Amino acid sequence: MKFTKKVAVVTGAARGIGAAVAKKFASEGANVAIFDINIEAAEQFAQSLGGEAIAVGCDVSNEQEVKKAFEAVHRQFGRVDILINNAGVIRDNLLFKMSESDWDTVVDIHLKGAFLCVKEAQKYMVEQKYGKIVNVSSTSALGNRGQVNYSSAKAGLQGMTRTLAIELGPFGVNVNCIAPGFIETEMTKKTAERIGITLEQMVENVSSQLAIQRAGKPEDIANVAGFLCSDEASYVTGQVIYVAGKPTV
Q: What is the pTM of this model?
């Protein structure tokens, strides 16, 4: 029970990777706050976790909503120990077809959202002299056709991670980044639909190109997040960990 008496905030946690991460922390004894714009889904998931899990409706790109969300967590549990910045959306398109709205939506939720959440979480972490922050990036940060908005936001998260590690390290806060490769989620299903194939076809195509010849599961990311937020990783900070089933450069 690595996280007994710890309080973990996971954004975009009603499904997919975020849900797997929240479930991991809850299973290891943490009190978990499920942040999601879909409060109904968040409440349903929080109930399924049992114990001390709460759902908090929050648009992470809205500063006032983020402030209120963290205040609610602190009011409920008295502290904030862990933050997983996972909330995200896709608005894929080639550059010449991409709208300004497509760009703003993706960058605001992934990059601005992480900034706003970290800014609030660090207030409590610095005072405690303890905290763990993990930003969820992507292998798309290395460049991916049709994702100039998503790739830019995910690359920005890696730069943010390194800078935050420098700034917050003296206060006992570790900041790291996980960059998943292909993970089977609702988001990847939408990507498959966008390019006109089934998720099963996409999984088969991707798996054949990996060293570990299977698609990733949300639990694969949750396990790495669990390690990075544990005291076993107390000397690890400012790192980008690619979890992609193959060597990544």
A: 0.96
